[in-house]
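Researcher: Go.
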Amino acid sequence: MEFKEEGDRTRAAAMVRLTDGTEFRAHGTANRHPSDPDQLRVGEEIAGARALMDLASQLLQKAHKEIDEVSGRTSHAIR
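Model: Structure:
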């Protein structure tokens, strides 16, 4: 995971590589309100969490696609 701070905006980029060679990439952002104190760590935490949530969604989609291909039916994520 990488972070980049630009003014009041923090961006996070995340990547995961699976053993089958598949790579997933995701991004997340956080914007600091002008009245909030300057806390770099909080922006990284929020942007990072958003990027990881995107990665988790991509991994679930891949898993369900593979389940569906093998089973011949539509699988549904448990929430």
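Model: The beta strands are 2-6, 9-17, 23-31.
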